[in-house]
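Budget justification note: compute hours in this period were largely spent on complex prediction jobs such as the one shown. Inputs:
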Amino acid sequence: MSRCMRFARNSAGRDFVVGDIHGCFAMLERLLARAGFDPAHDRLFSLGDLVDRGTQSARALEFLAQPWFHAIRGNHEQMAIDAAAGALDRALYLINGGAWFLALGQVEQQRFAEAFRALPIAIEVQTPIGAIGLVHAECPLSDWQAFVDRLEGAGDPVQRLETQAIWGRTRISSLRADPVAHIALIFCGHTVVGRPLELGNHLFIDTGAVFGGALSLVDLGDFHCFQLRWDDAA
Ligand SMILES: [Mn+2]
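Corresponding output:
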């Protein structure tokens, strides 16, 4: 598998990016309906963290099987991969919402882990304003091209880079606003924000659906942000 997946411009329809779903797939379906999402022509890009904490985590595989759905790997997919390999502390995964996964049989756990291992760390999508990057937590380097080049290399530095891309909060915790070169915009999830937050050319859109906030869906054509609040969906 490629650690960076590239997509040409969608000349037939619209492209959308959605923040951390965390098992809230019914909310996602309502939000897609509200945005007039057309599965025959439109594409939906997910910033990862499809699972854990919410009630419908097991539906992740159903969405990953759709030809219009493309996701990157979040730290929660990584925890599931590690848990299936016996390489994650059970108590740690439980407090992070992994009870549903730990309750699965071995065969089922492996089925999810295999699908999650196939997810790229980064996605690059061509849009009318240029290339847009997607990464779960943050771009660890100040140059997107250097980041994807190094991601696709091999060895230990790649592991560290992946970990930062999936878990990092360096930019958002220090409100670093320097732009990343060689990319128009970078969408991230992972860190919950009250409303979408722009820092340099990073755009953080995890508005905390599973924490009583909202699920955010951005149209990459006009950057309209569709939101569904958790209490609207009940
Ligand atoms: Mn996360």
